[in-house]
Amino acid sequence: xxxxxxxxxxxxxxxxxxxxxxxxxxxxxxxxxxxxxxxxxxxxxxxxxxxxxxxxxxxxxxxxxxxxxxxxxxxxxxxxxxxxxxxxxxxxxxxxxxxxxxxxxxxxxxxxxxxxxxxxxxxxxxxxxxxxxxxxxxxxxxxxxxxxxxxxxxxxxxxxxxxxxxxxxxxxxxxxxxxxxxxxxxxxxxxxxxxxxxxxxxxxxxxxxxxxxxxxxxxxxxxxxxxxxxxxxxxxxxxxxxxxxxxxxxxxxxxxxxxxxxxxxxx
Amino acid sequence: xxxxxxxxxxxxxxxxxxxxxxxxxxxxxxxxxxxxxxxxxxxxxxxxxxxxxxxxxxxxxxxxxxxxxxxxxx
Lengths: 267, 74
What we know:
The complex is a heterodimer. Chain A is α/β, with parallel strands linked by helices. Chain A contains 10 helices and 8 strands. Chain A is globular and about 55 Å long. By secondary structure, chain B is mainly beta. Chain B has one domain (2-68): Beta-grasp domain (Ubiquitin-like (UB roll)), CATH 3.10.20. Helix content of chain B is 9%, strand content 30%. Chain B has a 5-stranded mixed beta sheet, with no helix packed on it. Chains A and B meet through β5, β6 and β7 of A and loops of B.
């Protein structure tokens, strides 16, 4: 694949980076990144992946845009209220970068569809808003040997790590979803839009670095961000031999559909 | 004996981000978590002086306990 003159110009500010170059740009254009959830985390991730020239972007979301989303889900505009999020997101991507191929999945991920979906992509971004989905994505990526970026946000705080096959997974630190009602959700506890932005951009950055094989990834490290107190803390962790998924005697042999309690449930 | 407790993210519902606490000798991490009013089934990362620690860990004078919850919003 040769870069066209338009592409060389469009991506010139990143092509001049030694970590990117013409070869790296070609890698990006040939890459396929899946974003699960076109919400607070998915919005900035999708915008940056599209503008960076990731050639194929998958979007999974079964929701419609709600007015309560607009405070943080910056890929959706006021005029998009009641529109399917995947179509709203696809339209914005086309406006930023018409060369990106967008594959949409108008559904939520579940144990029966997720493996088939993630199989088609090189890197997965978890932009979901609930524990069951986060565990499902972790498990599906483990079984399919796919790298992914985990992200979670609440109030002014967020956490993220990157999984590569053979590295520590989400269950190495949190073995199963907490019982319903124990840990607060966004609709109960709130979320500041900029937190979603910051974390979603870190996730997009991990995807881009993975594709470019550049720098260090956030593997075996959990980054905690507290924007209110402007604190960034990284916790090193290792593959846990007692992990129920990737440990020495795994108990989990197949995907599990846990009961969902989502951020955007309306009371 | 006196220990330091640091709470992160939503665990700050159970106390300030930094506090010094007086606890009895041989107080375990599990007893500390109960004393903070955190439900037993609340998943979290438990670090003592930066290292992962089990619930049965017996606290020592001057230990710094850091507790991190999972965050699932998006």
